[in-house]
Amino acid sequence: MSDDKSFDLIVIGGGTGGTGVARMVARAGWKVASVDSLPFGGTCALRGCDPKRMLVAVTEGVEWARNLDGKGLDAEASVDWPAMIAFKRTFTDVMPGRIEGGLAKAGVSVLHGEARFTGRDTIEVNGGALSARHFHIASGARPMTLNIPGEELLATSTDFLELPERPDRVVFIGGGFIAMEFAHISKRAGAREVTVLEMTKRPLGNFDPDLVEILSDATADLGIDLRTEAKVLKIEKDGGDFTVTYETPKGTKTVNCDLAVHATGRVPNIDHLNLEAAGVEYSRRGIKVSRFMRTTNPAIFAAGDCADSGPNLTPVSDYEGHIAAKNLLAGKDEREADYPLIPSVVFTLPSLASVGLSEAAARDQGLDFDIHFAKTAGWYSSLRVGARHSAFKVLVEKGTNKILGAHLLGPGAEEQINLFAMAMDAGLTANRIKGLIFAYPSFASDIGSMV
Question: What global pTM score does this model have?
Answer without folding.
Answer: 0.95
